[in-house]
Amino acid sequence: MAEHPHACTCFIIPPKMLRKLAQATADDCERDCLLDQAEMSAHLRGQRSVAPLMMGLVAATGEKRRTIYDAKNKTQLPGKLVRSEDGKPSTDKAVNEAFDGSGATYDFFREVLKRNSIDGKGLRLDSTVHYQTRFNNAFWNGQQMVYGDGDGKLFLGFTSAIDVIAHELTHGITQYAVPGGLVYEDQSGALNESISDVFGSVVKQWKLKQNVEQADWLIGAGLMTAEVGKALRSMADPGNQALTWSGDDQPKTMAGYVEDGDVHTNSGIPNHAFYAAAIALKGNSWDKAAPIWYKALSQLTPNATFADMAKATTDAAALLYGADSAEQHAVQAAWKVVGVT
Predict the structure, then answer these.
(1) Number of folded domains in the chain?
(2) Contact residues for 96 (Cβ-Cβ < 8 A; gap 6+)
(3) Which residues are CB-contacts of 184 (< 8 A; sequence separation ≥ 6)?
(4) Same domain, 295 and 160
(5) How far apart are CA 138 and CA 332, in angstroms?
(6) Which of 183, 233, 287, 336 sits between 20 and 30 A of 46, alpha carbons compared?
(7) Which residues form the catalytic set?
């Protein structure tokens, strides 16, 4: 078994959001539950090698292999096998949503970007549903997807949002596509989160056949109850709490960059750069903007900065569409919009 130096447990809901929601509730039991989950998330996130990469899980090139397990509200992974690639649909909605969402993500990367699964070699897509009880999160642990059911009061089932599924699986792709992976802190960590938001949003747009003007550019819309908000983040307008939730602290440009800030906070800056580039390029985000961002991944290093990503995407645009092309100019302009260049 080989371990990836920068494989990490990456959660869709950051611990700071769970803590903020805990502070806002008057229910002692709910507060304790949220704080426990925040501590658990922080603890797991710190375990860089929490899950060794199982090289034996690689399927033959060209095959789509999805395997869904049920944790039965416990924490032992992967749990009981409940659906495999050739199996019949389950009577369990979460099982089918995890199966379909991972399939759509696989299909997007295969059909649009010619990538064969997470590692580019047909890695089996393992997912576990019903993790813990009323668990308010979903995460990629370096090896597989894990989904909580939400508590029903603040968060709903985490398998319901395709962009969340694609976001988390993209953490796996970044783990393999960036030589050495991206260190999960500072600007490289914010880039790690942003790349997942980018492809989470693009996969949703691709699945819904929405162009850049039709897309909502929201991450996790429908994941929370009305009591919390409408979405986790907005790529079109980071930090706009009317579009997201009351604790959204994402900066839109480098003027609002938070020194030593949470990776889920500063990711708003590269998120908005992608949005600006996609809007300028018009049409579908997966036609030009996504291939440029994807090609840039292989040019990054573990401690890549926003400026490094700006250069990598600018170079990728030149390689794909020509130096001094309209596409390259659109990418350069996008990074100027957010104040990185």
Answers:
(1) 2
(2) 83, 89, 90
(3) 6, 8, 10, 45, 48, 192, 263
(4) no
(5) 34
(6) 233
(7) 168, 264
pLDDT tens over the chain, length 341 residues: 344 555 668 889 988 999 999 999 888 888 988 998 888 877 776 554 334 344 334 444 468 999 999 999 999 999 999 999 999 999 999 999 999 999 999 999 999 999 999 999 999 999 999 999 999 999 999 899 999 999 999 999 999 999 999 999 999 999 999 999 999 999 999 999 999 999 999 999 999 999 999 999 999 999 999 999 999 999 999 999 999 999 999 999 999 999 999 999 999 999 999 999 999 999 999 999 999 999 999 999 999 999 999 999 999 999 999 999 999 999 999 999 999 99
Pair (238, 255) in one structural domain? yes
Distance from the Cα of residue 311 to its chain's centroid: 22
Q: Give the global pTM.
A: 0.93
Q: Which residues contact 340 (CB under 8 A, 6 or more apart)?
A: 254, 269, 270, 273, 306, 307, 309, 310
What CATH number has the domain bearing residue 221? 1.10.390.10
